[in-house]
Amino acid sequence: MGNTKLKTAIVGSSGYAGGELLRILLRHPLVMVSAITSEKSAGQPIASLFPHLSGLTGLVCEAFDPEGIAKKADLAFLALPHLASQEAAARLHSLGRKVIDLSADYRLADPSLYETWYEHRHQHPELLGQAVYGLPELHREKIKGAALIANPGCYPTGAILGCAPLVKKNLVDPTSIIVDAKSGVSGAGRTPSLAHHYPEVNEGLTAYKIGTHRHTPEMEQELTALAGERVTISFTPHLVPMNRGILTTLYARLINGMDSTDLCSVFEAFYENEPFVRVYPSGQLPNVRNVRGSNFCDIGVTSDPRTGRAVVVTAIDNLVKGASGQAVQNMNLLMGFDETEGLQSAGIFP
Question: How far from the centroid of its chain's Cα atoms is residue 172's Cα?
C-alpha cells in the first residue's frame, strides 16, 4: 500500500466498543479513520461523547449512509447492536467494501440458530456462508482472504481459547464442558438500564441467562468444528461490579489422566506462536487486572486428579480482545499488516 493509509469507517461509534475501536485506531500507524457514524449523535464531535479522546481527533458523527461510507472508506467496522448489522453489512458488502462486524449477526453459520437464539429470522442468510469467524488463533488463513469478518463475542473468545487445545487434542469428554464466566458491566453496552445502574450492580454478584445466553451456540459451533464431533456446553455468565474484564473458568472431564504440568505443556505447544495468548506456567492463574486495556488472553491450566477434570482459567479485556482489539487484529490480517500493529501495548496496571 506504499505510504497510503487504509481508510476506515466506524459505523456505530458512540458505544463502548465503538469508542474503544477509535481509541486503538487513532494510534495505528497504517490506518486513518475517515468517517464515524451514530444515529443518535449525528452532528456531534466524537470527543463530546468520549472526553478521553479530546485533542486527539476532530471527527464528527454522521448518520449512516452506505453509499457515503463506501466513498470515504475501504473497510468498515460495524459496532452496531445485534440485528442492526445485518442490513448494514449486506449493503456495504454489495458496494465492494470489506466489513468487520462486531455484532453477532454473522457469527453463526446455521441461519435457523438465529431464530432459536435471537428470535429473529436472518435477513441475509446468503452471506452467512461467506462470513469468516474472526478468531485469529483458529481461522488466521481464512481471515486473510475474507470480505466479511464476524468478530467473535466477548464470552466466546475467552471460552473458546480456553477449550480449544482440549477438544482439538481429544483430551476431554465433549459433553462434559462447563463454562463459568464473570464479566464487567461494560459488556452490557452503554445504553442505560436499571439492571446496570450503579446502585444495582455495586457490591453485588449475580448469575443470569443460565442455559439461555445467546453466546452459547457460538461456542458450540467453533468447538464442535475443532473436535470433529458434537460439543455441548453448559454456560453460566455472571455480572461483576467492575468496568472491564472477563474471567472464565472452564471445567471438563479428562478422558485420560494428565497432571497439571503435562496439561500446561499441551497449551504451551498449541499457542506457541500466538502473539496475544499468554499461557502461564503450571501452578499460576491469570487475573483480569493484568489484561485491562490490552489485547492479550491470559490462560492458566490445572489438572484436578481427585475429580479427573481439567480446569482452565482465561482472562481477557472484554472491550479489547473481546471486541475492538480483536477487530483490529482481524483488520491487520486482512490487509497484510503485521498482526500486532497498533496492539502492542501492555495492560494498564494497577
Answer: 25
Residues of the chain with CATH 3.30.360.10: 155-318
Note the CATH architecture for domain 6-130. 3-Layer(aba) Sandwich (3.40)
147 vs 23: CA distance, rounded Å: 24
Q: What is the pTM of this model?
A: 0.97
Grid coordinates representing 108 are 453463526
- Please, what's the b/e burial string for 6-29 (b: 16 or more CB within 10 A of its CB; e: otherwise)? bbbbbbbbbbbbbbbbbbbbeebe
pLDDT in tens, 47-105: 999 999 999 999 999 999 999 999 999 999 999 998 999 999 999 999 999 999 999 99
Task: Enumerate the H helices of 50-192 as residue ranges.
Answer: 66-72, 85-94, 112-117, 136-144, 154-168
CB atoms within 10 A of CB 204: 10
Which residues does the annotation mark as catalytic? Answer: 154
Q: Where in the chain is the domain with CATH 3.40.50.720?
A: 6-130
- What is the CATH class of 155-318? alpha beta
